[in-house]
Amino acid sequence: MSDAPKVLIGFGNALSAPEVIWSLTDSGFVVSAFVKSGTRTAIEKSRFVDVEFVTDPAESIERALADLQGVVRKLNNPILMALDDEALWLIDELSNSIDVRVAGATGEQARMALDKRLQLEAARNAGFAIPDTQPIETESDLQQIRRFPVILKPALAAREFSGRLGRGKSHVIGDTDALAALGRNTDFDEVMLAQPLLNGVGEGLFGLASADGVVCWSSHRRVRMMNPMGSGSSACTCLKPDPDLCVPAERFVKSIGWRGMFMIELLRDRYGKVWFMELNGRSWGSMALARRMGFEYPAWTARQFLDPHFTPVEPPEKPPVLCRHLGRELVHLAFVLRGPKSRAVRNWPSRVASFASVLRFRLNDCWYSYNKLDRKVFWAETWRTLSGYLPAFSSLYDRPLERISIPFVRWQQARVRASGRILKTIDASKHILFLCYGNINRSALAEQHLRQIAGPRLQVSSCGFHVPSGRPLDSMMRTLSREHGIVFDRWSSKTISRDLVAKSDLIFVMEARHLVRLSSEYPDARARAFLLSCVSKPGTIPLEIRDPAGKTPEAYRQCIQEITKATSSIAERLKS
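Now predict its structure.
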């Protein structure tokens, strides 16, 4: 048995996972990674890591913690290292119940890493420029916004609700009409932060913090974002750290008692002013560029945990390089072609210039997730990225197969409905899954209503195709569903996963196109997936139940009526 120290990283779904694995293994660590059950990751192709699956905390925090605790015991208490905010939250929560070794943030440092309000206050005190920030807790707060464009983002990077872990969605608001629409569709069940939408270039300031200060500073600048409207980088290049920024950054890091690697995300506006955006208290997406320049932050953080007096040797200066993510670069082109979705977004990239820039390759360019000893990871990561975004760009290409399939699926489902055979299938079902696009209206309602009327005899779940998970229920649906006695205490949307599909005996979807997509992405589900209307007699409700999102209250009431008729039919069958 190897005496090399063991490190358990997670979630292995994070963009930085391959680079963290290679940094640690190159430094002599034995690495395992915990991954969300039902998902596929690029690191499963790696020669240098063992993968362990745990329940996605967006489905159940309790089960995720139990699974993670089991992995920790199996590996005999390895060093834990978070790669994303969900894992940071989960590891911190686990540290409250059992004795674990964590190379990273726990306790007060974890709260700082996950709460942007705390970060902004500490950054202001350290001397950084902070965008005007208005906390939004109620609809009244929202109505106080007067200047546009503005961005609303969750105050917490991860939060618990109804036994699940999730995060709200950011919104770019261009005018009062968009603001009013957001107010009508927001539950205000979490604090949001409103800030002016600043135009500029993203920069990152990185280092390793110890009790004696920060060492091994480095800096990056975004060349392109995957989504020009705002997202992670698809290409970035290195910069020399600006001493005028390192001074407040070191004050900031010392004031919060930080240890280990960190990233301070900044934005330099068109006038050259630098604004503090947030702290990343775990590994970051552009770790590939740091490593290409000799900064082995993950390995250094693990070494520092084992030896608090450890100080890495400053790597020699290297010529600047451009580091690119192949999948994200191609997705960037798709975003540019599609165009902005909000009128608040200005200076959208030129299509010609974007193609010329992305398709230009230089000899010194380097790539995210590339290791010549582990090449399969690069191609797996590229495909994972592309396949994850293909559905979002369906408007850019013709889908002849779907156009042919949908009329056939409607005809076939109408025959299933007329036969009444689906009711017999319900008799043998122990777990029913409802599926729509967003999981904030139709499938959510179906799950909640059937759970209320069927009781514990049946396990009921729901999900949607929308990524990411963690969105609140549509506020109009919450309000109008009460008229039918359907009460949602709290709600967090879930994205469809292999685990959810595998556990279900029956899957009910709302529209024919959902069946087409489900069959394409999860072929094993084809034989047990049907339109929800198939549980009712022809003529009682429409064959397809349309999405009411953004429509009139009457559209919502009609949707509620159609779904509750169908779920009532399921419950009556169970009682008979």
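The chain has four domains: 6-110, 114-127+198-395, 134-196, 400-575.
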